[in-house]
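assembly run, all chains below
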Amino acid sequence: MAKIDDVARLAGVSKGTVSNVFSQKRATSPKVTERVLRVSRELNYVPNHTARSLVTKKTMAIGLTIPHGNFFFSAFHNQFINGVILEASTYGYRVLLDMIAVEEVKTPSLASYPIDGAIVLGPTKEDRRIQLLHQNQIPFVTVGKIMNQGIEDVSTVNNNNDKIIRDICNYLISKGHRNIMFLNAGQQMTVSIVRTEAFIHALEAHQIELQPHMIHYKPLIYSEEYMRYGYDETYNTLANLEEKVTAIISDDDRTAFSAMNALKDLGYSVPEDISLFVICGDLSMMHQVTPSLTGMDLQPSELGVQSVKLLMHKLSVLEGEFTNHWIVDSKIVERDSCSSV
Amino acid sequence: MAKIDDVARLAGVSKGTVSNVFSQKRATSPKVTERVLRVSRELNYVPNHTARSLVTKKTMAIGLTIPHGNFFFSAFHNQFINGVILEASTYGYRVLLDMIAVEEVKTPSLASYPIDGAIVLGPTKEDRRIQLLHQNQIPFVTVGKIMNQGIEDVSTVNNNNDKIIRDICNYLISKGHRNIMFLNAGQQMTVSIVRTEAFIHALEAHQIELQPHMIHYKPLIYSEEYMRYGYDETYNTLANLEEKVTAIISDDDRTAFSAMNALKDLGYSVPEDISLFVICGDLSMMHQVTPSLTGMDLQPSELGVQSVKLLMHKLSVLEGEFTNHWIVDSKIVERDSCSSV
DNA sequence: CTGAAAGCGCTTACAG
DNA sequence: CTGAAAGCGCTTACAG
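ok done. output:
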């Protein structure tokens, strides 16, 4: 690989000048620019990214930290990541994918983390990733609320999960449902905690008392229960509960399908006997299946874009004012899986 | 951030020694090791990754290049990426996600690409990404066959797509199907080309002549047709074709759902009237829906693991012999969507 | 087992 | 607009 000295020598200029034609930080005369570029092309020269990083102290990469161990990509995450990559590339940033154990204390890494900033997906209570980032003074933004971290003023991009659950509950209650089962996300995620509170409040607002066994949490991904989540909860709850459940709120499409299977085995059909609402599902899945599934549009791609934007502000690559807490809109998309009782 | 000089001074040793206790490349006495480690902890010191990279000429990152523009993560890709990340972390490697335009000639990047090697997902004919990698002398392995690249001896990890299609066809033909429609992947992908050939051969082997309009290709992702792929092809073909289609092979679960919607609108049911086979779908989706979908297990996670292993061999981090072409097994998983005619 | 010194390939004040 | 020189924070022969 040709290096800057080779180009400088052959073009008859100094290294500094070669550097400038590539970085564009100082103007170079047209003649010199053209000559340097030509020589560079001949030698197949391209500035060494690492050497540049060492002096600029920028890696031009952001980390996307995905909770490892209790997580699996869903359509939501796919779209989110698409948004992140596309937006990051706008600023010349690349995306480093990283799974960090949320809880286990691993042996500290042997070297500093080669990123300028990070995006933390799906924070949990007392999330270790956040502690690590904070400790290493790496700017970051979380996608989702943080809790119990003892860190001030963390930048966050998020849906309004409180409002989402209230909207869903009001939607179902307005259709006459009063016995609503909630298949929530994993218990360790802060989003689940927010949702549960909102769920209880929404019911209370309509004088509905929360029945036991009406809120369930997604098991850890590698557990035996994981693959049966949705089915077991639905089957057991509907088979045993005194009061009849008439609506189910499901965290994602997979869980919804699983629940529908249980309903089928119990002899119920959707939406005639039971209404089904999916919070976070693949749009094309949701409308392709029968019945098509009513759900929320969370704008995952927009969440990705906004989290990159916020991070770029923190890294001062984006100028101007910004809010530390950005909310991405969401709205109900009605399809065929919810009906009135 | 503390640097190696600070630690060396405070611990009363040379920088070289500090370097050695962290890199473990040369032994250090217990006393010195302990002292250096203690000081490092006090100063919150961790070796600078970039500085190290500059001299070792290793970034300890591999790139995962995803075709941009005509691509969307599916469950297959999720599991694949999971395999890649997990296996890569075994060797201390991180994964840089990258979407490179497959065809457009973008302005050349302003700096070298900070990866030691790359994995190319879903190669197309005359794939630009492969040319770029080859040109920049970055070791890479493709997941999928390459065609028309003019490059010798490219390392490849792949399913045996020829065998997969033959197996599927034989499976369907053994159930009496002779009019089989094939909803293939995107036309530009090499996998589609291999599959189409195999499809034709499999039919020929049973003296079945390929009817027109029996092979379709997935449109580019941002096209208007994309969202209707599966539905339109199924509807139009079944409504207009003289001979009745009795089985459909679908590239993925999304397309299968789409096709099922068309079948419903046409008054056909699966598997009574039409059999449906999914090549590459989300296992949990496949068995959660009704009817559960018969399909192939492609072992995407294993594909990810093996492509990292092969790349590590090329980077000489893994010793010993290796084959340049690794095939990952696949097998039919029977569920409820295929029946005999 | 340890140290002193050169060097990895750039960028960046500084000077002109 | 350009150049000479120092320096980014490490690792690595070389020597002992």
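Residues 65 and 98 of chain B are 5 Å apart (CA to CA).

The two ends of chain B are 72 Å apart (CA to CA).

not gonna interpret more than that til we talk
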